[in-house]
Amino acid sequence: MKTSVCMLVILPVLFSMSCSKELETAAWKEIPVVYAIINIKDTAQYVRINRVFTSDGDPCVYTMTDDSVNYHDNAFDVTLQEYRNGLPVADPLPYIPVSREKEPGLFSNHSNCVYKINVPLNKGSEYLLRLVNRETGAEAWSRNMVFGQIGIQEAFYRERAFYRVNYVAEPMPGFGGSLAPDDHEYYIVRFLYWEYAGSETFYKYVDWVPAMDPLKELAEDDTTCQLFDAYYKYLSEQIPIDPSVKRRARGVDYMLALPGHELETFMLVYEQTTNPHFFPDYTNINDGFGIFGCKYYYTYFGLKFRKSTIDTISRGRYLVNHRFADSNGEWH
């Protein structure tokens, strides 16, 4: 018999024709819906988990009731394990439950059960995502190869170009799509900087998507000052003031978000319904629904800061309290 998927628990049906009639119930099974993306150029990876129910009865209608489609926080043990040549490299690393606000998309609902892990990903590796329901012990899992050739750490050390002069494009073996910026609806502007706390160094960045948050239209006179006041103000709002740390600006990458094979397939058949709680038509999650995919931020242009730009970041009115080094490498 065909199995249908719904977002609501199937309740017993009571027939009132006679008091001697017994309750009839439809068998149902809870199944997790997982949305997880890994990106070698991100320092944090996220997983969202919802649930659906299957039954052997008639198809169900969708419901907006949070307690039937959403798990409570920390309902799962979630881990990520690296593999090379089919063998595990180390022990699985745990995700932690977090609250997350994001631009409209699969992670946008306030009641999402979301997990996060901060771990650098390695090119050429395969990763196993594993979820265990802490109450029932039920498991779901998926494996996927990382996409792209340059990790977040290497991105900080690659030589940057001067303004509006492209350097050699990144290697993209096996990618058959267009790498021309004009062929993509969105591009990402990433401000990269180092943060020093005691003896530790952290790779930090702030992303801006102009199509979603147009701070201003880029004009030809931007070539004289590289960045603009609205952008400095935006950075000051995204980077917290912390007197205990020091920072050094690295540069700006202009990037395109390219999907890996699994994510690209998911996007081709993906159709958002009016109800945010829905199950996907394509899945690569074992014992569940959803997508464990990968994407890559392809840098098509690297902006190398002039000394005047570095000094504006360090001493300008918007970022003067954020402790960025000036062009002489000194902090104030």
Describe this structure in words.
- With 332 residues, this protein is mostly beta strands.
- The chain has one domain (4-10, 27-315).
- It has helices spanning 66-69, 152-157, 222-225, 229-238, 261-269, 307-315; strands at residues 4-6, 28-39, 44-55, 76-84, 87-88, 93-94, 96-98, 113-118, 126-133, 139-145, 188-197, 200-208, 246-259, 289-303.
- The strands form 2 sheets. Strands 1, 2, 3, 7, 8, 11, 12, 13 and 14 form a 9-stranded mixed sheet that branches.
Measured distance between first and last alpha carbons: 72 Å
Q: List the secondary-structure elements in sequence, H or E.
A: EEEHEEEEEEEHEEHHEHEH
Tell me the total number of β-strands: 14
Largest sheet: 9 strands, mixed
Shape: globular
Contiguous uncertain segments of 5+ residues = 1-21, 57-66, 219-223
* Percent of residues in beta strands: 25-35%
Number of helices: 6
Q: Share of helix among residues?
A: 10-25%
Mean pLDDT: 80
> What would you call the structural class?
mainly beta
Rg over CA atoms: 24 Å
Into how many domains do the coordinates divide?
A: 1
